[in-house]
User: Fold these one by one.
Assistant:
Number 1:
Amino acid sequence: MMSTFEAAWVIARRDFVASVYSRSFILFLIVPLAFLAIIMAGGAVADRAANAAAHPRVALIADSATVEALQATRARLAQGTSDHVFPSLQAIDPAENVDAQADALLADESAAYSAVFSGTLDRPVISAPPNVDRRVVDPLTLIVNDARLQTALQAAHQPPAFVAAHRRITGQAAGNLRIVRNDLARSTQSLIFGITVILTTLLLSNMTEEKSNKVIEILAAAISLDSVFLGKLAAMLCISLVGLAVWGGMLGLGYLLVQVVQDWVTLPDVGPAIGWPSFVLLIVLYYATNYMLFGALFLGIGSQANSMREIQTLTMPINFMQFGVLLLAANSVGSDGGAMTWIARLFPLSSPLTMLGLAAQADAIWPHLLALAWQLAWIALFVRISSRMFRVTVLQSSNSGSFLGLNRLLLRRKVD
Amino acid sequence: MRSQVQAVPAIEAKGLVKSFDGKVAVSGIDLAVPEGAIYGILGPNGAGKTTTLRMLLGIIEPDSGRRTLLGHERPLEAAKIVGYLPEERGLYPAMTTREAIAFMGALRGLPLEVGRKRAAILLEQNGLGDYVDKPIKSLSKGMAQTIQLFGTIVHKPKLVVLDEPFSGLDAINQGRLESLIRDEAASGTTVIFSTHVIHHAERLCERIAIIAGGRIRFEGLVSEARERLQPQVRLKTRNADGAWRRALPDDARESGGHWQFELPPAGIEPLLKALIDGGAGIEELSIERSGLHDAFVAIAGESAARAMDESAQADLGEAA
């Protein structure tokens, strides 16, 4: 009798070769990249549109000195903060009736002004509806007052020179480090979550396909079902790693190209607490355990179902659980302990993401060794439960049975 | 068929019972398949043949009873020396024939490279050399079944279990399969197969089990099954009447000028003497041994035999 791992290797090798050498694998590699490109392009366009739409404009009906003073002040303030903080200012020649001109400008949809400044720096008038005070009127008032102050100082021949502070370079500030590491933890958690959600769908159809090919009985007669399930999980993990290597390689290459073009090749100077090499290794390991844990669940359910419709029905609770697990893990980032954090670390499905977050924040390696052993034990248990469930409800049954008995209702098979 | 059958059982089952959802599928199955034999399990659809084979192979566990497979109580322990062709044929459609055969061998512990070489040889020997690198999906149903059969024997098992192997095959492929089964048995392999076509079992097997309604109705040599029925005497005489009529048994039937009746327990010689002495004027006299079909009817009953015939007819239609 072959050992469980020998037999799993036979299954994994077949599934891996069959998947990687299929035309659909090319699609599998291309589609996420295409999606990413579309999302990035769409995001950039949406961002630009949002910025354009969100940046308010103010008409300045004033003499040229006032207009110059206001525009110069705006430019100075924006340089020290952000251009988005202040409305853009546009000079308009004054008409006879300034109030009527202001009302007309505010009503003109093509000009799209949010407010109108008129008068002088000493007697400013801002015409605007009441709902733009915080975004338009307050920053404009700041500009007016600063311009007034600058003008007064210039008139008194006492303008203070701009003082550049002496820059003393220090090591990382703890507060900054904490923020960066929290961001790193959450982004890697989200990355692994996203990839797992995408790739576990591959597993869903796998066992259903196996049943429709009617190969499962040949497998069950030759090797243990634990080996079948383990082999399928391993194959899918390897396939996903090939995908990740290809996607990661392409993104890395793109990043490098951009850096070379920009003539600056730098590595992030703030890293995870555990160090980049260990962190990258832990990303791979926790990705693998996260994938195997959810994969075993999905495979168990996929084996019970006879159609994609049944799969969708049966996996919905697990999809919700995946989101819950992500929230639980994300909540533990930056936490100094507490019951919820420990639950997130110990609950097998949230453990990989939570521990990855910990790797970004703390430098101890031993908790990760314990966590990986803990997660592997749960993978073995999930595989065992899935294969037992399959044997009990499908192979042991006269009908093609299913979890919740769904396909007993849908499909009948003869006893003999 | 091999004339010498060794006494050591390749498969032994005692009191196997299996129910599905409270419905008894098989009840108290006892089997002993001698090593090196070609053994047939006969029964109509729904009789419990597949359930029995699945229990023997460990695909499903019996509710009660024991079985050993080549001496192993856990069937998977013997997996490397067992080949199994299930009733529901299954192959990966995109795989080439060579890879499919090699993969099935690999499942039984045969190194993939060896499996590929043996697959090529098997295909070549059986006139399918041109299909070595063809995908399964491009083959006819009969060819695909043949490929699966090669996958069942590629690792040179000591025991081959075939569930309805002739089902869906045309006459030519059925003949090929019979030859293959004989070849396997000739090389010392034990072959056990289920069928609802009596003449396959009659031609191939020396031992059979007749199963109907989830129970074994007969288990033993084919000749023993036949001997359950007395041979039939067919007689035609020149004289329609006379003293010779007293020599005929009470249940003798006449049809178209021929008399038919069971051979009397005393044998043919006293009967022959009485007919001659009684002036029958014998024109024709023959003793016909009963076939397995008749034995099946006698053992399993008319309804089981009718179900067998209907299944066989359905198979013919499918193969056509």
Number 2:
Amino acid sequence: MDETGSPEPEERAPRGRAALLVAVTRTGGFAGITRVWTAEPVEDEASEWIALISRCPWDERLDLDPHGADRFQWSIRAQCAPDEEREAELPDRAVTGPWRELVDAVRMWSTGRPQTA
Amino acid sequence: MRHAIVPPYLLARIAATREPHLAHAAAAARATLAAQREYRPTRSRLRLTIDESGSLVAETAPAPDRTIYDAQGRETLPGVRVRGEDDPPTNDIAVDQAFDGLGATFELFWDAFGRTGIDDAGGTLVATVHFGQDYDNAFWNGEQMVFGDGDGEIFTGFTSSVTIIAHELAHGVIEASGGLEYQGQSGALNESLSDVFGALTEQHLLGQTAAEASWLIGAGIFTPAVEGRALRSMIEPGTAYDDDVLGKDPQPAHMRDYVVTDSDNGGVHINSGIPNRAFVVTALELGGNAWERAGNIWYRTLTSGTLSRTATFAQFAAATVATAEAEYGEDSEEVAAVRAGWADVGVMDDGRDG
């Protein structure tokens, strides 16, 4: 049930220095179980990730789903440099298009590779 | 031209009867007639039984009208229609589980509370299965129920427990009854009521008393890889799972452990443990079938028309006591049981002083 962890650039990267950090936190849903996925890609992958991140409408403000129940809520945070952090809160219905691509990429990064800790 | 199994004159006769032992049948007939006046094609069934005196008893009961859609792994609603009310079972487990689960929920609401479906007018119950890819959720979108298949690693399909199907349908009933704002304490009450009707549907289906019931929500939803029995335990909130990946079930069982958080609409799926346990304690105090008295009190409170959309736990608790007093009398064991339930979780003082 912890909120997303510290946004500090990580120091334990085993495959070279992480160029950036993207964290996806999913709360709510029928189960009410919070899930957190993070991606910390290295320099070689950075340009693809920065492209993914910049395609997302970070400044768009969306209300929570006004009707219904048991929907997911998403919190997405991207840190491309120590002083450059973006954050967005999204209702489940908004996780489409570029947001969906970014979320899927983070989940794949975090589960598809050996975990660092 | 209306299609009805029971001719209107027979319905009218049954509706008009004053015989106490036919009260249920009379109510059913009145509901059917009332629905027909609105030109709603409400479905009904005729049950013929022989009573103790050997008389033939004709009893009408409304029947559900279910439509199941298949999203085919996409996130577009409603999807492709795959089973209607008159269609036979498909070979798709999720489709048939959803169909049967909606039927079981309809039966509980009709049999226990005399309600016909989400809108109480026999409207179609719509559900979509196979929503999204590896989708770890079931939800109510304001118009219909939606079920994912789970990711196969943590969650199996969300139609595998009737408590989940009934929980989602109950969200529709709550909304149709005036609603409870999905935030903070009123949101946790919304969640708790859905769990209550979810558990009652399973108990009604299995013929379990309050003492026999597991009071688990979503039992069997986890894969064998997860250390957990279910998503929630209404009788022992906070004990449903304790797993390396998922962590420990965070539900409190008492007001002193109320969780303040911005996540999950203010912890609606977390703090629902408190009113959940209040309901179970009430049901266990009364014994027997939980839907008959405890369930009736909770349902009548929800549908009274006077419950605030932003009700707190304390306001809802007071409303259940008022309902119990009105239904069973101020000095009834039902009122004492309701007070005991809310006292157990620290929402009310033990009400011996009235």
